Fold:
Amino acid sequence: MSEVLLKTDKLCKTFSNGGLQQHVLKNIDLQLYRGDFTVIMGASGAGKSTLLYALSGMDTPSIGSITFGDAVISDLSQDGLAVFRRDHCGFVFQQIYLIDGMSVMDNVLSAGLLVNKDKKDKKAVVSRAKELFAAVDISEETQNKFPAQISGGEAQRVGIVRALINNPEILFADEPTGALNSQTGLDVLDTLTKFNEQGQSVVMVTHDMRSARRGNRILYLKDGVILGECDLGKYVHGDESRHEKLSDFLTEMGW
Amino acid sequence: MRKAKGQTAAIVVLILIAALMLNLWLMLSMDYKANFDRYHDKFNDGHFTLTIDDRDGAVGEFLDKTFAGDKRISQYSLVSCLHMTTLIQYNGEEFNTWCVYLPKQTALSCKVGRSEIVEDSAYTSGIYLPMLYKSGDVSVGKTVEVSIGSNKLNYTVCGFLNSTMLGSHNCGLAEIIFTEDKYAELEQSGYAVKSTLCSVRIKDKSINLNFEAEIKSKVSRQFPNLNMVSNCYDIVTQSRYIAQMICSGIMSAMAFFVLLIALVVIASNIINYIQVNIKNLGALKAVGYTSRQLICSLLIQFLGVTLLAAVIGVGLSYCVFPAINSMMISQTGIPYSMRFLPLPLLITLLILCGAVALAVWLSSRRIKKIEPIVALRSGITTHNFKRNHVPLEKTKAPLNLALALKTTLSGVKHNITVCITMLVLSLVLVFSGLMTKNVIMDMTPFINLIVGETAESCISVDIEKESEFLQNMNADGRVEKIYLYHTINVTHVGGAELMATLCDDFSVVNNQTVVYKGRYPKYDNEIAIGAKYAKQKGFEIGNEIEITANGNTEKYLISGFTQISNFLGRDCLMTRQGYQRLGTLSYTNYYINLSKGTDIDAFNAEKKDLFDGYVNTVINIQTTVESASAVYVSLMTIIVIAVLVLSAIIIAFVLFLLVRTMLNNKMRDYGILKSLGFTTRQLILQTALSFMPSIILSTVVGLVVCCLIINPLMSLFLGSIGIVKCTFSLPIGFIASTGIGLIVLSFGLACLLSLRIKKIAPRSLLVGE
Structure:
């Protein structure tokens, strides 16, 4: 059995909108394991992103707890959550969210140097950034450009580098291919798969089957509840049976 | 603007402050001095007033003859009265001035230059003092000690009077009204000298200075040894309104500074608005709105806010004015009733609306360049991609500082706004420092510049006893230094009357800064003249001028230029030998420096007793200067406190605007940084730090530049009263510490205003839920 990285206990999230209570997540008990590529699927409005943001400490649950290792992160203050995020998590957003005023390299280093403050560490961070850039095929020239000067696919790969710069224990990805075209989306998925194969734990939200089949564990969320779960096993390129299995699972879930 | 309530409120406050100060300035400068003219006309007062010893009425007859045929004169009056140097309580101290004593009925019914009782009582025996002297210690019913010559007398204060030409010691000649019984008593006592008070109204008041010089010259030729004191319209108006001039000058400067900051803020706001809303503007253009319409909509918004703020500001100025009025009255001594003044309101609105319209138009012109398709496609472009400032890979700065510097270097508009604000505030700080050191803490430099020479005591002794007097003084251990410092009027041939200061040797005078260019006169054919007058007449050092007095005319070589405000720059310095070419002195004024701890009044009284009958006047210069300067010290203290508080308010509002704008623009960036793990504290620090380079740089540069230019600026400011070159020393420590204080305050405020970052949640990046 794999090591449990993060678990939730009766996790609920309620939003109040004009006096109306909207229960987005309802009593979710979930465990995430080290090395897994977990995919959270569901229809629009099912609460996928809300669950992702709660798991990653971007948001706090209304009721219930989230435990990372021995630490209950749901009890942390906003600044405590910020420290948790920078020390243990990486994020890849659908809208990419690079900072316009910083070069590609600076976008990555602003995250890397936040954790590694010493001079020695700085060299290591720069070196790791360059390694990651090389791994995702971002040239040195592109590293010095600004986000508005690069393509969407490049920008998302920069986003992945930024997310991985601190060797996070979990990489969270919220619809990472949602804003990309077919080919660049595929490149991004390949990148995520490659890092997962190297041992990186990934939790990804998607409603795209092509993206979802990269995961080894599929969770299906409906109306704030995990309706079902499917074990696809490790991803193997060109394995069509994964697609059929996933398709059957999703049909069963009412996709 | 509806969406940016905070920013709008800050702009409203800045314009409100500007309107308040502009209206106060206009009220002070337009109506306050006009108030003097209203009273001057009401009292049918003269443009030239003279009081002269006239024991037998001969002077009166001479003056009557002189005026009768003069077509320049519209009206004159000659009144018999008493006069003498008078020591009187003022601001808790004793003040020495030349006073005319008039019986009540005469004073109130003079054909030219009557007085008015502004506060009366049931007391029927006593005196009426100019309202300038009204204070806690001097009020109706109280008994005051008045020294007439060397005789101390006690009188009940029956009330207070208002007189335009004789209502203040600042006029050089003041008036005290006596009830008939007390006047008769004084007349019989012989303590005061019988004299004639002449008041002359001239048809063209612009010639009043020359007219005064001419008449005095005629009189002194006819009666060379009589005591004669005079004033004229120009001197009186200017000397009674110095505080008003200083106050309104500072007010106008501050008003325009605040307005400048408001305009920079508005321009910055509009440029930012265009950047943020470029897509909306593009869309509006796409549906048919013209650039002119879009600019007009901005103009209407900002002009609406300006009008509203200006009207409130003007309204507030009427609430503040009574306090300023009472402060001013303590210096001018002329009552002023506040009333609504439409013209200052109109000018204030015009200035503010005009300036705001110009700022809006200039900054919104870029709307014309927006092409709908480009705007809709590209939207906001917040970075120019020319340069990656402070690359994190190479910089040695800590991460937070490096990110702050990135923000600083990419925010040119913010930096310009901050720089202009801090430069203006630096000037305010340096001015405050200058005033604190040279007026509030130690007034000597200010007095040296405005008054000229000071010592502890001044004794006026008849010429026949001069040698004996000097022997006695030199033998007195308390006397550290004694030197001739005598003032007398002379006339420049073809020019104006000049107040001549005579000295045996100018190298011994205490204030060696009076001659600021050239040198003091050494020989009997040399003269140093007022720089303002020299400039008017086009004189250079080395030129020769003709001076006349006592019917004699002599040529003198200009050895230097002086600058003191006495007689509005119409002054000159001569050696005694130099003056003696024109005439002799009947008495001499000696300035005396006494050893520390000497009781000046006791010393003066002792010498007066010793040379009884030969000492005309004794003056405690120290108390005279202290009481006269108390008004300026309190005025300056209030001004310095006000400008410092105002500076803090301005920096608070400007930072509020900038921080708000930055937070609005960078909301997304802050969300991203928070999601990466930056804490609220780190982001607040980054935001505050991003303002610091421009704040520190502009404050330091501003302080240094202002320290260099403040004296020339002060010279410009005081130019109208004859000051050409100010050499005030600057309290570098005070200025440096207030500069540091301003920087620390700015940092604190920026941190405080950035607390809103706490509310930015990374969850806001969530889309689609």
Observations:
- The mean pLDDT of chain B is 87.
- The CA atoms of residues 47 and 208 of chain B lie 6 Å apart.
- Residues 457-597 of chain B form one domain.
